[in-house]
Amino acid sequence: MKTSVILSCFAVAASLLVGIHGNNPVAASTAVQDKLAKSDSASTNMVQAEIRNVMYHFSDKIVAHIRMLSGELEPVGGKDIPVFDDENSFNLRISNAEIAMNTASLTSAFNTYVFASPKSPLKDVKMNDCRWEIEGQRTAA
Q1: Is there a domain that residue 133 lies in?
Q2: Do the Cβ atoms of 27 and 33 come closer than 8 Å?
Q3: From CA 75, how far away is CA 116, in angstroms rounded?
Q4: How far is CA 27 from its chain centroid?
Q5: Which of the 8 DSSP states describes residue 40?
Q6: Which domain holds residue 10?
Q7: Angle at 48 between CA 45 and CA 53, to 5 degrees
């Protein structure tokens, strides 16, 4: 039971992190339409990516350990190839990955992105071993 809860937490974290640096749904849908309209030449510019044992810093407080990741880097923004110094020059299309986060990073990600809205009913949430503890105030919905 505990293993499935931990795996569920990692799945939520991975989904959250993809959302942090991913496109919003409107832009994603537009991007899909644009891609379908383009010729197959764009797919020839994709670069295969294999990443192993990398500590990826989304911010000073949000760090993910990428144990293993396979996918493709897709050039965007008119670029012919991905430019690693420009995070906006490519999309990472993940086909398979194993990513871990400690509870401090996961807590920061949720408080910064999920519960950051003024309308959020929860504030200052802390995660401890995949259990949520509300240390702050619960606001009216």
Answers
A1: no
A2: no
A3: 31
A4: 16
A5: G
A6: 2-101
A7: 145
The residues pairing with 128 across neighbouring beta strands, listed in sequence order, are: 131
- Tokens matching residue 106: 């996961």
DSSP codes joined into one string, 42-72: GGGG-EEEEEEEEEEESSSS-EEEEEEEEEE
- Split into its structural domains, the chain has a count of 1
Tell me whether residue 42 is in a domain. yes
Burial of 39 (0-12, 13-18, 19+ CB in 10 A): exposed
pTM of the model: 0.59
Q: What is the pLDDT of residues 35-94, one digit of tens each?
A: 555 544 556 788 999 999 999 998 999 999 999 999 999 999 888 888 888 888 999 999
Task: Say if residues 58 and 21 touch (Cβ distance below 8 Å).
Answer: yes
Q: Is residue 125 a part of any domain in this protein?
A: no
